[in-house]
Amino acid sequence: MKLLLTILLSFTFLFSSAQGSYDVVVYGGTPGGVIAAVAAAREGSKVLLIEQTRHVGGMNTSGIGTAESEHMIEETISGLPLEFYSRMSQFYGKPKTEFYFESHVAEKTFNDLLTEAKVKVIYENFVQTVKKDGAKIRTISLTNGEEVSANVFIDATYEGDLMAKAGVSYTYGRESKAQYGESYAGVRFMDEPIDASPYDDSGKLLPGFVEKSTLTEGQADNRVMNYNFRVMMSSNADRVAFPKPEHYDVNRYVLLSRLLKNKPETQFRDIIDMYSWTYPKGKFETNNKQKSVISLGHFGGNVEYPDADYQKRQVIYDDHKNWTLGLLYFLANDPSVPQKLHDEVNQYGFTADEFKDNGNFPYYLYIREGRRMKGALIQTQRDILEDRKKPDAICLGSHWIDSHHVQRVAVSKTQFVNEGRIWHATTEPYEFSYRTITPKATECSNLLVPGCLSVSHVAFCSARVECTWMQLGNSAGIAAAMASKQKKDVQQLNVSELQGRLKEKGVIISIDHQIWNGGKDVHK
């Protein structure tokens, strides 16, 4: 009875009305948002977290079960994010911190952190309007009709909607090579052509393709990396068969039909990347396969997403979901699929123990890239590879510069290329300036943006992984609590004082830290 009462009290606390005033309001229950909320609450702030779906955790509870440590310096993960990974490792009985986990375990860990920190959470709500007094946000109104005020707000979403509605300058898409002198910027043709016709039988360009004649190497555009769902698959007996989508159109998969006709030996893993990591036997994380003729990435389907309203975004989400379910259903059922591939695909299905209230399908669409703030400082490729130190550093980044393809380009009647890939290995960490998460003081004085931060497209391709967003969220949460307590604009915080507090909380902010200079491994 005592345990039941505790659960009911926690449930009431987490799901009660958001109406009222807070020290810190975090918009977006992404991994970075959860960490920001908990970090601020641990500093003594009264915190509200507003999540747009029914579940916190963003992509870490929607199919990404890694900290991406295989493509970064894992020792740069510190503070509260490291605690998050350590807690999951303890759940699995691991002797030291590891960076692989299941989505439902990540969600439990996020919820444990929020409950312990007494963070109030409301779900399925979006910001409607923002009321400001000069540069200061006074209140935000939500889709449930409630109005919320706070001393400091944090936008931790993948889209940056609170930032945009607050009148903060932003951009999206790709800068040209010339704009910041970035060798990896703009349109990029680095991959070999793929032998598959990008035209239909009447000679019309297939949906999602553009003509190469319209593009120039290194030019700017408003396109972002392709999106896909990170579905979880299983080969175990309790797997859930791939369902037929509500709007199934076999014509969407003409490229796949042509591929299988020309290459009947094609295997499932030639189409979809599958990772087993350290998951239980028979369980797999999936991803878009970069060089495949066709895969989970829905090219062209996300062009309008970054600046779309909520209704249009839902249409785009549903379209991506139908694309994904349709692709899997085609492979499992279409009579044109070679028998060997048909049999192989039907050895898999959705995992029965993930996303149970959503048809075993992920909650979040993988928004690899949305808006990016245009703050007082915009970090670029140079800040990752050359000028890696910052006087107002608040955390570290080290992930490779990694852009998935942006668009499909017809190069002839029989070939196309996937365009936009960047894959540059970083060998040393770099520092994030506090100014990358603070808007211009004239635009908004009480908002921090650790998600859609102030960086170029190239720099964003390194920053855009969940473990780095959690690092930025941790620092943003502590900064927000400090600004609230001191009644200061976020731009007026004493950076040295902030850096001191970050260090006290175990955050590594300097590339000169002893960990990669022969020091003790903090993860053991």
TrEMBL record:
Presence of keyword Iron-sulfur: yes
rRNA-binding found in the keyword field: no
Superkingdom assignment: Bacteria
Keywords: 4Fe-4S, Iron, Iron-sulfur, Metal-binding, Oxidoreductase, Signal
Coiled coil ranges: none
InterPro entries linked: FAD/NAD-bd_sf, HdrA-like
GO molecular function list: 4 iron, 4 sulfur cluster binding; metal ion binding; oxidoreductase activity
Signal peptide limits: 1-18
Stored SUPFAM superfamilies: FAD/NAD(P)-binding domain
Protein's name according to its UniProt entry: FAD-dependent oxidoreductase
Species assigned in the record: Dyadobacter pollutisoli
